[in-house]
Amino acid sequence: MSEITDKFKKADENSRLLSAYRPLPPETLKSLREYYRVGLTYTSNALEGNSLTESETKVVIEDGLTIEGKPLRDHYEAVGHARAYDYIYQIIEKEGLAEENILTLHRLFYQQIDAEKAGKYREVKVYISGSRYAVSAVSKIPAEMHKLVQWYNENEKKLHPVELAATLHQRFVFIHPFVDGNGRVARLLMNLALLRNGFTIAIIPAVLRHEYIYSLETAHTRPEVFIDFIADRVIATQLDLLRLMREDNDTVNDTVNDTVKVSASRLSKTEQTVLDAISLYPDYSYEKLATYCQFSRPTIARTIKALQSREFVRRIGSDKTGHWEVIRKEEEE
Q1: Which domain holds residue 286?
Q2: Whole-angstrom distance, CA of residue 14 vs CA of residue 234
Q3: Helix, strand or coil for residue 98?
Q4: What's phi and psi for 313, nearest 5 deg?
Q5: For residue 325, what are the β-bridge partners?
Q6: Is position 29 within any domain?
Q7: Is 29 left (phi over 0), alpha (psi -120 to 50) or beta?
Q8: Considering the domain boundaries, does residue 206 fall inside one?
């Protein structure tokens, strides 16, 4: 757990850096909430096979338009997730987590898809494709959900927020209380736990679907694997937000700018983005880095070459079976 503890410390440090920008103007807070409303809706749905792109998701949930050639259900999932996302901000300040909150999240998400099953525990047995483990039996769901909520309320101030959020997500998925939509609700609950405890939204992009599913499956016997995965996602999302704040916040005074020290400050924004990605995912190929960073493959190749020439990263092993190693993160004075 020592490596995970180090990641908790890094997440705490990033949280402190972000707090230096507070209080944010109301219009900035509104903009950030809308930014993650689209981003979380898109990524969470994409993990489950939704075909809408991020820009299409934005049009659907903000303008109420339909996308030609895309399934109606994909539109319902986008609109429903956005409504459930809005709901978590209504209950952030409430004392504790209630079972009714979880049922409401599912109802808001699933209402247009299947109104009869929305916000109701499943009454049929379900199987998870690709998993060796059974989910909770129908007869045990009410008791298991009661225990889950009780566990959360007892541990909210005892566990680190990242461990709390990851474990809530993991335990909820293992119960699988609804006939469908469990992954979406689990990720909303995880982010509710993070927000309630002073952290930012954590995004899991679709490119990490394999790692996400693998870590969840492994968590049946080694829960720390999933906690570690979520810690990486919390840190990565924090770094993305820090970059946004540094680029867009022109009202922060010089004192705050001195306090918030930009890692590898002499790197370009593109170089810093790629360096952060390599630090988190040293085994990624050029293609995966390009998808993760949302750059073209040639841009990734050029940037890595520049980072190598300046001795920020090096390649260990062959292009096919090797991995990247970060040598340093800060420009030497």
Answers
A1: 262-326
A2: 10
A3: coil
A4: -135, 160
A5: 314
A6: yes
A7: alpha
A8: yes
Return the percent helix, strand and coil in the chain, to nearest 5.
60, 0, 35
| One-character DSSP codes across 196-250 | HTTPPP----GGGHHHHHHHHHHTTT-HHHHHHHHHHHHHHHHHHHHHHHHHH--
Residue 252 lies in a domain: no
Q: Fill in the amino acid letter for 279.
A: S
Same domain, yes or no, for 37 and 165?
yes
Same domain, 228 and 81: yes
Instruction: Name the pTM for this structure.
Output: 0.77
Is there a catalytic annotation at residue 176?
A: yes
| pLDDT tens per residue, range 71-95 | 999 999 999 999 999 999 999 999 8
Mark whether 104 and 174 lie in a shared domain.
Answer: yes
Question: In this structure, what token pair is assigned to residue 289?
Answer: 């880095």
Domain end: 214, 247, 280, which one? 247
CATH assignment of the domain containing 195: 1.10.3290.10
Spatial distance between the Cα atoms of 254 and 209, rounded to a whole number of angstroms: 41
Residue of 120, 119, 52 lying closest to 84 (CA atoms): 119
**CATH code of the domain containing 270:** 1.10.10.10
Residue with tokens 């990624």: 284
Residue bearing tokens 């292009």:
319
Band the pLDDT of 262: cuts 50, 70, 90: very low
Q: For 165-203, what is each residue's pLDDT tens digit?
A: 999 999 999 999 999 999 999 999 999 999 999 999 999
Place of tokens 């338009």: 65
| 270 located within any domain | yes
Spatial contact of 226 and 234, defined as CB atoms under 8 Å apart: no
Q: Are residues 280 and 139 in the same domain?
A: no
Q: How far apart are CA 110 and CA 251, in angstroms?
A: 41
Helix (H) or strand (E) segment spanning residue 265: none
Which residue is catalytic, options 176, 210, 220, 323?
Answer: 176
Q: Which tokens hold the place of 100? A: 């009714």
**226 plus 322 within the same structural domain:** no
